[in-house]
């Protein structure tokens, strides 16, 4: 069995860069750019400076043509760098979507009127299937659309969607009934009820989401965009009022010249939050791409943002916190018997048990007591486990070997005439149960030999992951159907903050609502129909791809690997996106401080020579100061593109420490970087 996750696409892939460059020029169309109002304003400013450049060439503008021409060129580059960042992020998604499209082929479907294998069928193209149609899918045929199995069971190859090469069982009437269009039946036959109309299948949604074609702005993005537009309007009003102010100042002082249109436009662009406005679309698209690298599909950007704000994680015990299969870890003798006697009786009682627990008993007996797991004897009579008897075993050579619950085994041996049970049996059974394990009593005929300790193994490293979440202020809650005693023991070993034992669907829903009413953001995983109500209520709902159709429809995130522990990775990616957006916003706004010291003295020094004291960077001339600020404002965008696409490195720590750390790096760094960058550019310009 092998599994592959989507391979990351390199930022420096030549084909990707060429395609993004071409697309960036297409995005200069104002009809496309209006979705980013700040950059649309920069494009209008670029047009204005282009007009002033032409006027300078024709002698209708007193400003030097080299100055207006370079300002215009760098403002156009500012817009192109912004569209290039978005095109590059979208290009990575389109490259992945292209690989998914290759997995799609034109298929036909056998449309039937009723869910029966011998029903007459009509062959129709897959694109004609509608929700509610019934189709027959036989071995070596592709499933023509998303649906659920309503008759039969089959082995299905889902590698085209999940990357998992091992086939999985899909059957009617259980939590494994959902099937995905484009997957292939490799054995048996099934009847599938279609659950999605053409163009709305899971694969269609994956492709459109990965490409970013239908990506809607998240609430945080909308709020940040409103802030950026407000700041842009403020700076626009400031710049519009500077012209009459400088005209009045020149008249009053009797010297100098009013600020030119080119300089006003340069000031506006440099002070507007162009950096974060340019990178904001790329951050959101790249975040969904990073999730896809983990084989996770986010059905909305809102879900990713919510993951970054999660306060409470609800996690199923089985398969998430524990390995899912109980394992035999020790044989505990009672009544004066030896460990070898217990192991031998347990071995015979488990020889025909094909469950993971039964196999682990055989392995432990062979390992600790050097017993041989031989084939079943010819006279063996297998006693299968049942809910009524609560025991299983084997009869051979006149001996009866049994293992099962304590009360069931006690009743069994007493039924064979045993006068008493070992005095220490109850204490051993109670000790194992209190430790969160399952005690299985073992006997031969009417004599009890000891107890098998079946332990639900906690996954390695899960305690460290929970500690990381705790350090971020996230509460972890384990949900299990176990009794409170067993649940408490496993919760203590896994080091979760709380647990819900003997949980029913209504209990999960109630717990989520209680936490939400207390002001918390709640995330949970699920795969069954009984999880659908809780998934629909949770802020972040992660459904397993192997789960039922109701669970997948109720969720806002789908895990293609069906690994419940992915919830922890999703939270990290969500926080990474929020951190990246916040850090680059801080850096962008902090940049303006240095630009004040570059542009304001340059534009006003002819009227007020005293403002020369603000020229702390000792820039050569007023024109080079303005041009240096414009060039730095443009170049900082492509320099930050890798960070926007890769994301700020996530470090588990309390929110207060994280805020202080990021303010120091991106706030102080955003203030200092322009001083260094603008001075360096001015020195280079001085060479010409």
TrEMBL record:
Domain P-type ATPase A stretches: 121-211
GO cellular component, one term: plasma membrane
NCBIfam families: ATPase_P-type, kdpB
EC number, as in UniProt: 7.2.2.6
Natural source organism: Geomonas limicola
GO MF annotations, alphabetized: ATP binding; ATP hydrolysis activity; magnesium ion binding; P-type potassium transmembrane transporter activity
Purpose of the protein: Part of the high-affinity ATP-driven potassium transport (or Kdp) system, which catalyzes the hydrolysis of ATP coupled with the electrogenic transport of potassium into the cytoplasm. This subunit is responsible for energy coupling to the transport system and for the release of the potassium ions to the cytoplasm.
Protein name: Potassium-transporting ATPase ATP-binding subunit
Chief place where the protein resides: membrane
């Amino acid at each position: 069995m092998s599994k592959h996750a989507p391979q990351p696409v390199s930022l420096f892939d030549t084909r990707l860069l060429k395609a993004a460059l071409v697309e960036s020029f297409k995005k200069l169309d104002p009809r496309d750019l209006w979705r980013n109002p700040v950059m649309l304003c920069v494009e209008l400013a670029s047009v204005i400076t282009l007009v002033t450049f032409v006027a300078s060439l024709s002698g209708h503008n007193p400003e030097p043509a080299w100055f207006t021409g370079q300002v215009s060129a760098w403002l156009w580059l500012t817009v192109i760098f912004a569209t290039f960042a978005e095109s590059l992020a979208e290009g990575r998604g389109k490259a992945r979507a292209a690989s998914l499209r290759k997995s799609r082929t034109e298929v036909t479907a056998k449309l039937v009127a009723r869910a029966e294998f011998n029903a007459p069928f009509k062959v129709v193209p897959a694109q004609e299937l509608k929700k509610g149609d019934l189709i027959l899918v036989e071995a070596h045929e592709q499933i023509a659309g998303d649906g659920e199995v309503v008759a039969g069971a089959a082995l299905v190859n889902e590698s085209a969607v999940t990357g998992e090469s091992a086939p999985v069982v899909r059957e009617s009437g259980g939590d494994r009934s959902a099937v995905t269009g484009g997957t292939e039946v490799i054995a048996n036959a099934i009847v599938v009820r279609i659950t999605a109309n053409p163009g709305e299948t899971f694969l269609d949604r994956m492709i459109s989401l990965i490409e970013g074609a239908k990506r809607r702005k998240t609430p945080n993005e909308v709020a940040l965009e409103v802030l950026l537009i407000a700041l842009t309007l403020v700076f626009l009003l400031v710049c519009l009022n500077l012209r009459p102010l400088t005209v009045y100042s020149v008249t009053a002082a009797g010297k100098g010249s009013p600020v030119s249109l080119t300089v006003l436009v340069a000031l506006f662009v440099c002070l507007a939050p162009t950096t974060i406005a340019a990178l904001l679309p790329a951050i959101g698209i790249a975040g969904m791409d990073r999730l896809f690298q983990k084989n996770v599909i986010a059905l909305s950007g809102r879900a990713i943002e919510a993951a970054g704000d999660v306060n409470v994680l609800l996690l199923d015990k089985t398969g998430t916190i524990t390995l899912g299969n109980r394992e035999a870890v020790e044989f505990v003798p009672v009544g004066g018997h030896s460990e070898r006697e217990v192991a031998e009786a347990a071995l015979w009682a488990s020889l025909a048990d094909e469950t993971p627990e039964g196999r682990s008993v055989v392995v432990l007996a062979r390992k600790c007591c050097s017993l041989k797991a031989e084939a079943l004897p010819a006279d063996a009579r297998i006693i299968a486990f049942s809910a009524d008897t609560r025991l299983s075993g084997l009869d051979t050579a006149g001996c009866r070997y049994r293992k099962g619950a304590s009360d069931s085994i006690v009743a069994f041996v007493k039924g064979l005439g045993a006068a008493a049970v070992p005095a220490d049996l109850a204490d051993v059974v109670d000790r194992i149960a209190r430790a969160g394990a399952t005690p299985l009593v073992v006997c031969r005929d009417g004599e009890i030999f000891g107890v098998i300790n079946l332990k639900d193994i906690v996954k390695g490293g899960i305690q460290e992951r929970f500690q990381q979440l705790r350090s971020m202020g996230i509460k972890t809650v384990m949900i299990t159907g176990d009794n409170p005693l067993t649940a408490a023991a496993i919760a203590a070993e896994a080091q979760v903050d709380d647990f819900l034992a003997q949980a029913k669907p209504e209990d999960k829903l109630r717990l989520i609502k209680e936490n939400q009413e207390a002001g918390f953001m709640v995330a949970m995983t699920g795969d069954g129909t009984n999880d659908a109500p809780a998934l629909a209520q949770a802020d972040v709902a992660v459904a397993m791809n192997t789960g039922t159709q109701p669970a997948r429809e109720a969720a806002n995130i789908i895990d293609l690997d069906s690994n419940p522990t992915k919830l922890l990775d999703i939270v990290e990616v969500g926080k990474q996106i929020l951190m990246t957006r916040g850090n680059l916003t801080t850096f962008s706004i902090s940049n303006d401080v240095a630009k004040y010291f570059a542009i304001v003295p340059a534009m006003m020094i002819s009227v007020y020579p005293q403002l020369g004291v603000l020229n702390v960077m000792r820039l050569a001339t007023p024109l080079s100061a303005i041009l240096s600020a414009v060039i730095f404002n443009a170049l900082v965008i492509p320099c930050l593109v890798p960070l926007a696409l890769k994301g700020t490195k996530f470090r588990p720590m309390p929110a207060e420490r994280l805020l202080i750390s990021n303010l120091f790096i991106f706030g102080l760094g955003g203030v200092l970087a322009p001083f260094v960058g603008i001075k360096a550019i001015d020195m280079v310009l001085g060479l010409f």
